[in-house]
């Protein structure tokens, strides 16, 4: 295996594992209010395209890393879609309006 192969594997590991803490936090709290639905929709679409590209080219490390990343980001996107729009953490009040 060449140095560029190792570099690719390390890059895939870093990119894929970066989403794990966010998935864990979103799953435990069921809160995704601060996550952009549009941004994650585009991200998941891009990952689907990279997965397809890797499959068509026979690049199995690319397929594997994007499959795992897609599971993570897809979970976050699913939780974002399922979160009620007016969901607030318990015990917190909205900030007072200006002039109050």
Automatic annotation (TrEMBL):
Entry keyword DNA-binding: no
Gene Ontology terms for molecular function: sugar transmembrane transporter activity
Subcellular location: Membrane
Keyword annotations: Membrane, Transmembrane, Transmembrane helix
InterPro entries reported in the protein's UniProt record: PQ-loop_rpt, SemiSWEET
Membrane topology: Multi-pass membrane protein
UniProt KW Membrane keyword: yes
Listed GO CC annotations: membrane
Superkingdom in the source lineage: Bacteria
This protein's name: MtN3 and saliva related transmembrane protein
């Amino acid at each position: 295996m060449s140095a560029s192969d190792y570099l690719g594997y390390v890059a895939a590991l870093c990119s894929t594992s970066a989403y794990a803490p966010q998935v864990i936090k979103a799953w435990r709290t069921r809160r995704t209010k601060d996550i952009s639905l549009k941004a994650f929709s585009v991200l998941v679409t891009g990952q689907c395209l990279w997965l397809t590209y890797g499959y068509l080219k026979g690049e199995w490390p690319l397929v594997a890393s994007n499959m795992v990343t897609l599971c993570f980001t897809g979970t976050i996107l699913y939780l974002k879609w399922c979160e009620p729009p007016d969901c607030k953490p318990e015990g917190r009040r909205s900030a007072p309006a200006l002039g109050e």
